[in-house]
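Hi C.,

You asked whether I'd gotten around to modeling the 531-residue construct. I have! Everything is below, sequence then structure, no commentary in between.
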Amino acid sequence: MSATPGSPVGRRTLLKHLGLTGAAAVVAGAAGTTGGCTPVAREVGDSGGGRRRGGSVVLSQVDDANFPTFRQQNTPNATWQRLVFNTLTAYDHATLTPRPSLATDWEVGDGGRTITLRLRDDVRFHTGRPFGPDDVIENVRWQASEEGAPGQLRSTAAAVTDAEAGGPHEVTLRLAHGVSNFFDLCEIMFIADHETLDGLQTGAELNGTGPFLFTDYSPGVSLSFRRNPDYFRPGRPFLDEVELRIVGEQQAIVAALQSGQTHLGFQLNGNHLHNVRADDRLAVHELDTNDYGHYLGCNVTVDPLSDRRVRQAIAYAVDRDKVLRMVVDEVGRTASSPWTPTNPAYDRRAARHYHHDPGRARALLREAGVVGASLDLAIRSSEPGGDRSTAEVVQDGLRAVGLDVEIVVYQPADFQARLSTSNLPGLWVAGHGFGQLNPATLLNGAFPFNATANASNFDSDRYRTLADRAWKTTDRAEAAEVYAEVTRLLLEEQFVIDLVSSSQSFVTSDALRDIGYTMFNNLDLDDAYLA
């Protein structure tokens, strides 16, 4: 599908904690060639020092773009959304303080029930139409809609009951009640031209305000973008073009990086990251969002998982250190709770509550009278590494304490369908996000934890009450009390058994410098350039 330009249509270097700008450090070494190929990094010439303007960058990932899930945080969209669109605000990664983006400043009043946003006056969509209050109002309404594939922050958008423009560059939102995660909504809500929202979920019209214009899409093959000459950030972007290639296999991405045919690779598991680190010409960027929680889910309607003692036994039986080593190549930390250190609910002792203790696991299973019980353990892929490797560690741990566990492999679409309808049998291995943001976003937005309806069929009035209080409170002291109580509940009930808190990673060649990313892991190439 083509779009008319302007129409809506080594050293072994491990980069940790990239800071507030997400800037990549320089990785020394010359990119080589293999098989007679000309590396794309060399097609644009040498930098001559400093930031170089121009050139084309190639990105590679496993999965195709998923336009229907535009409103959600969804990994296949992380590499391209921030190229075309901007958000109202952008979080400081260290403090979770919102910073200006399309909104220059804001006022929150009436206990969080009134929010006034002042907007930039120099922003235009890629068609040339000025950005204004109506775009904010209609994007919030779209986020609140249940049509299509709603975003994880739908409930927060739906709390907005009224909105009005206060001039050409100001908008006031009125909420039914204060919400603690309003700026999480601002971080995930990419502002699109409100006149073309219908085209977003098909990819027919991607009309944003971002640094690059969407120009072409070949399903299952690639997406293409070119520099926006009218971007509101002076002198940005430095790059002329970006191509996102859909490669399909992780090993193929590694080969493309090593041969110089791609500048950035995404969606690589721990096995491949381990191999990449041995290449002096490549750098691994562990995103400081730490938002990928590797977890073991429990369908509490399947016996013996209906007994919390069994779920607790499983939490003690799994060797989290082995998952950390074997699955994510020590990117991250072991975890018993979903919160990361940037989250206001994070508690270091709670994060270490469960540890490998087979003796305690056996005692709990004997107490529950289920020694020798059988369970299925579902995964979505049989590829070595990733969920498959996690499942094997889980299987070994549970068999060692007296549970008979069989791994069942589902096709990805079938697994996702079963997960989203709370219909997975017994146990499953997957990942969750949102542990890095406001606690209410995980409790009300992340489906594994959703207090209203979740993948585990866990039903608790107490949990719903706590989640609602965490969402509506704007008082810090009350919030701290609620966060502590909900953490105790999660540790006690263990319908989601957190194993490792890790992060997504970008792998880059030594030619691509100064990449950034949002707290939702969306790639930011505003300041990126080719050396």
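If it helps when you're writing up: The chain has 15 helices and 24 strands.

Thanks,
B.
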